Amino acid sequence: MRNWRAIRCGLLILLGGAAIAQDSAQIGAPPSLAKLALAAPRTGQPSAAAVSGEPAPHALTKSDLDAWLDGYMPYALHNSDIPGAVVVVVKDGQFLTARGFGYSDLEKRTPVDPERTLFRPGSVSKLVTWTAVMQQVEQGKLNLDKDVNTYLDFKIPPFEGQPVTLRQIMTHTGGFQETSKEIIFYDAKKVRKLGDYLKAHTPKRIYAPGTTPAYSNWATALAAYLVERTSGQSFDDYLDQHVFAPLGMRNSTFRQPLPAQFKGQVSVGYQAPGADPKGFELIGPAPAGSLSASGADMGRFMIAHLANGRGILQPATAAMMHNSPLDKINPRTLFPGLNRMELGFFETNANGREVIGHLGDTSAFHTSLHLLINDNVGFYVSFNSPGKGGAVGPLREAMFEHFADRYFPAPPANPTIVPAKLARQHSEMMAGLWQNSRREDHGFVSLLNLIGQTAVSVGPKGELVIPALTAANGRPREWVEVTPFMWQDKYSHQKLAAQVVEGKVVRWSFDEISPFMVFDRVPASLSGAWLKPALYASLVILLLTLLYWPVTWYVRRRYKAAPSVSGRALQAYRATRIMAAANLLVLAGWGVLVTLLFKDLENLAGSFDLWLWVLQILGAIVFVGAVGISAWNAWLTLNDGRRWTRKLWSVLIVLATLVILYVALRYGLLAMSVSY
After folding, report:
1. Is the pTM of this model over 0.70?
2. Four-residue CA torsion sign, 439, 443, 445, 446
3. Between 20 and 30 A from 184 (CA), which of 237, 289, 458, 554?
4. Edge to edge, what strands does the sheet with 252-253 contain?
5. Number of neighbours of residue 424 by Cβ within 10 angstroms
């Protein structure tokens, strides 16, 4: 579900002043957690302290970690207006700490209990789904490199003759466009069976398989359906029997709505400050994000994976998930030096340590899970609100960075810097407009591709400037080129890299998203550099055309003047003004509808389908009709001797209607579909 918070929602929560700092619950791990040792520690990498001349890191002990969390979390929650959080750290097959902070229910002042309180980890759920998939792979029931249509009772159309494989799905390179419909809602009556959901919302494929990372919730749900097909069980039953039960995850479920036995345990999700909570979030592509789990259960899951899959996977299978072979990956999806996808997990490397994990977001809950594979350490944190101004995003990123810096610091480095002249040249090669690979190319949601194109420019000192990539302070990150086409954020762990083909930058990404999303250049035909000004100018032309009509009517009435045209010319004149008004009204309707749809993710569950049909049908009539009528008016104007200003204006009206029709066609306003 990640990355929806930035595009779709402004979800905030307001806490009461000093209450959170004073009453923040700090619950230690229950005694039972200390007994959960699933495996002996793995051999880790040498510690930073072992390297001569390096400052010794803090020892990762329960006492030091708890002291750090006691100083970090209460203030972070208070300052960010987040009601509650759970933090779990495991080490060497044991729980090091499991802590609840703040409240799971503000009104009742219920503290977060790390053993019993259920949080909604969003897309971190995918790690459980991928684990189930790999169980079927190791049993020989699924093949990572076989056409998935082999296992399905419906067909996924090929892309340019190429099928999609399970390996491509697990690395988010299946080539599917984004799907938005029924992503999150609250009405239990809308919950579908997994197969029904997939068949109703099968997305188009917009990339050749294996070539372009493009995160897909739908494809994850498809993988879970394969488990249903090969195991003969519902996915929920399968997880209960083959993942949760073996690991003792008694406070975990993917089921929707939430089973009765868990209803008193789930944390309230706070989507906005001061607003009433909306209730239990229901996820359309359930296997991609419907998990409800306690922090302690997520600790058990981390211990199992750190122990080479003990209890749920064979060691070789777990190793394949954690460090997938490079020879199975298309080089176009890789940026040397940046994080990459594994099988389901993705890298979140820090300070030279090998780290894999996942992030997850619903409207209310925001989560991260990280496994320091060679250090046998797992880190998990989940928050029950985005906080004020989306504060949870920077907080979540900073928290793991600070954890890594404290306990696994990087050795002192002598960073190289690309010479200023060359750095400027490379920045100039990056300049332009780019679009995210995770997008919808068909349907009205593709309009966001025009609105959301990412601009890259060159600063006064030749530095790379990307205003859309902001740091925790809200300002654009400051990128320093440390090796050719590799940039380091001056004040964080984030790195950015570009791919160069035949002397041109063709693709780039940055650490946080590089495993599953990239930026490609916007085609010239869709570039906002000319299309946005052309669209704005067209709207102004049509608006002035419409406003000029009552003005001339008033002037004629005031001075008792006759119209300057008559007959067919007058008919064309009036029809053009009517179509200008109709154009503007339909576009205004789209503006209102899109605003309402993305104001609340629940609105994407189909409640506005009727209005989508109305606007698409009206658009087909109005946008096409306006071109024809304005062209008729222009032809008459150009041939009946009117002065040159009227001739010019009639041509501008034709161009304006053509631009609007072009936008409507290219951005799905005439798609005649309510699938999105």
Report:
1. yes
2. positive
3. 237
4. 118-119, 292-294, 252-253
5. 18
